[in-house]
Amino acid sequence: MMEVGSARRWLDGLGWVVIYALVWALFSEGGGWSLGVPTILLATGLSVWLGLRPWHPSLRALPGFVGFFLGRMAAGAWDVAVRAVHPRRPLQPAWLDYPIASPSPQVRLVLSALVGLLPGTLASRVEGDQMRVHVLDERQPWKPTVSELEQRLEKLLVRGRPH
């Protein structure tokens, strides 16, 4: 019978293979697998050897997260389209701080990466519990959207994680 630690390493390895394969497929536009497969296996072996755990998103939280995120991206696209048609639509750009509530480094990393895909926002850095955000119009309700994204990431990446 397989030891629990050994089974966990195999599952972690499988998780890393899936993650690295998805990243490879995304950046190589689905090509270059003769180089990609050895690279994926090497990266997986290194990750398992270092004892790193892959992210195990909560499948229960995934549909709500995807729906929320796609909805916000569509709203952002609509806003850009309207601003392109009406170039005089007023903007009030600003650099503002967003207080990050999650202690999870994974949530912080993904949050800072995804904020730039939300309507009118772009994260520049995270220092301590503050994320510096550039907004196109500070009068728009950007903070509740970023807060909801953070909460959904917390549900997706932390609460759904096996221990």
From TrEMBL:
Pfam family name, one: MNHE
Membrane association type: Multi-pass membrane protein
Record's keyword terms, sorted: Cell membrane, Membrane, Transmembrane, Transmembrane helix
Keyword Lipid biosynthesis attributed: no
Chain segments annotated as transmembrane: 9-27
Matches recorded under InterPro entries: Cation_antiport_E
Subcellular location: Cell membrane
Location, primary (coarse class): membrane
Sequence similarity: Belongs to the CPA3 antiporters (TC 2.A.63) subunit E family.
PANTHER family registered for this protein in UniProt: NA(+)/H(+) ANTIPORTER SUBUNIT E1, NA(+)_H(+) ANTIPORTER SUBUNIT E1
Protein name: Na+/H+ antiporter subunit E
